[in-house]
Amino acid sequence: MDLGPIAQLVERPAHNRLVPGSNPGGPTILKMSLFIKDAVGRLEDLIPLNLQEEWDNSGYQIKLAEVPLSGIVTSLDLTDKSVNLAVSKSFNLLLIHHPLFFHPLSSINLDSNDGKLAGLIMENKICVYAMHTNFDSSRYSMSRYILNKLKIKEIFPLIPHKRKLYKLSIFIPKGYVNAVRDVLFKYGNPKIGNYENCSFETKGKGSFKPLEGSNPFIGESQKTTFTDESKLELLIEEKFIKKAIGEMKAVHPYEEVAFDLYPLYDFGGNAAEGMGAVGNFKSKIDFGGLLNKIQELFSPIFINYCGNLNKKIKKVAAVSGSGFSFMDNAVRAGCDVLISSELTHSKAIKANKSGLCLIEMSHFDTEKYFTAITKDILTKEFNVPVIENTYENNPFFKYKGGEL
User: Fold this and answer.
1) Is residue 400 part of a domain?
2) Which domain holds residue 112?
3) Rounded to an integer, what distance in angstroms lies between the CA atom of residue 84 and that of residue 22?
4) Are 255 and 240 in contact (CB under 8 A)?
5) Which candidate in 10, 180, 191, 218 could, as Cys together with 383 as Cys, close a disulfide (CB 3.0–4.6 Å)?
6) Is there a domain that residue 6 lies in?
């Protein structure tokens, strides 16, 4: 495997750029180099930005897109160590979980620690890209990782992501409906329950009058034409609208395609994407036994809990990061226990009253798997060197009496 500075993309030609190479005494060779924007584009296919919460700022933090990708550092946070690791390896993409910016900047102080770090990033031409709550709502989330590690089955989102759906209606001449439908099923085909490839076709008469300068597929210039057409209707997810309409126009025979796009009042749910994760143990275990599993598998700096240690546990929810605001969702889902971080006094009291068991670990201990998860995704998708920043530790320390 070639892990040189000009990375090659494996089996994904849509994300390649062709650059001329030389072969002395032979024909010109075209090498495929992966640009930063191509890798980010593929990541956004897998972990869409529209999964993020409204208050979030996932995506490019410091953008550098039009250059070949030399390597990637994955890191939970943007820190001196993560930047220095990228600089030492001459890698030019730093993939982080927590965004660098949440609000517009009024100034940058290059004398401050953060300012010096930003200066180092720009001096070394490093792109910084964040996947925060969109990652938390993706099928790769740390919440799912926690449940998978506990060998919990039948995992689905605690709060399914609501997809913004539209109805797309296109008017198509006879003989071309199947070509247009096939393209739209590829790009605009959300599952409806356990069904897909859902559409409706209505036959009718269309009319148009080609004007001067037109190049009509059917009819003659300056004459009104009536022709057999079908109206094809189907649902399409908002994030695919631009791509689907572009592909539809490419196969549609008309010079000017007539279509309508209607936003729907209700949004569709998604069985794979959404905040948090919930699933079931194969058989019930004691709550105290679950606490022992948490300690053994995750080695957190601390565990706090609420609930009866003898309670039988079957259905478990996990929300990485600060997720105890989803307690009511866990109760409505019939969960026996919720695992998260940053538990407050009032929520602990509420949990004890409701009968929901809680397990609290540090924020870091529920999210420290980001680097390994993203490294696994990247190495499967791209032939490019990827390094985890494993130098970051929990920012909190557990005090043991007398040990200062």
Assistant:
1) no
2) 13-134+370-388
3) 35
4) no
5) 10
6) no
